[in-house]
Amino acid sequence: MLRMWMRWHLLLLAMAGASGGVVAAEQLEYAVKAAYLAKFASYVDWPPAAFATPTSPVVLCVVGEDPFGPLLDEAAAGQQVSGRAIVVRRLKSIGRDAGCHIAYLGKDAHADDLRGTGTLVVADSGNGIINFVVKDNRVRFTVDDDAAAKNGLAISSKLLNVALSVKSRSPQ
Questions:
Q1: Helix, strand, coil content of the chain in percent (nearest 5)
Q2: What is the DSSP letter of 152?
Q3: pTM beyond 0.70
Q4: For the segment 16-70, what is each residue's pLDDT rounded down to a tens digit?
Q5: Partners of 45 in the beta sheet?
Q6: How big is the chain by its Cα radius of gyration, in Å?
Q7: What is the secondary structure of 65-133 as a DSSP string?
Q8: Dihedrals φ, ψ of 130, to 5°?
């Protein structure tokens, strides 16, 4: 199911690139990234203490510049992860107590304070647990599974199998 979902989004991005519209391609790039962000939660297990109650929402934060606008809200609307809604928050900066389960780092945002917090850090810059990469006009991603483990996160093999590359966990 993940592969079919990814192919559909990649096809949209490829069509935008073929049309020659730079603005349209960028909008589709961020629409695909927004869809990924809303879906990543389904493939991550957080530590039990990450949620206050069994029905607490998954909090998806955009930190710094927000390139998504309403696209991320639309992608997250109605999504459920193990009975939890996905709530989108936008923050200028982030600290250890921000309450974010997923943090997308916009330009100039940093994740140094999030090490060991149980937060799935997603970035375009390469300093996240999941890093977006545009390759051959397709939005792809890499995964640092070692950093995920250090944050107490378990990423499903289904997501790892479709990543462009995976940095494996260090032996314990």
A1: 40, 25, 35
A2: T
A3: yes
A4: 444 455 556 778 899 999 999 999 999 999 998 899 999 999 999 999 999 999 9
A5: 154
A6: 15
A7: S-S-THHHHHHHTT-EETTEEEEEEEESS--TTS--SEEEE-TT---GGGTTTT-EEEESSS-SSEEEE
A8: -115, 130
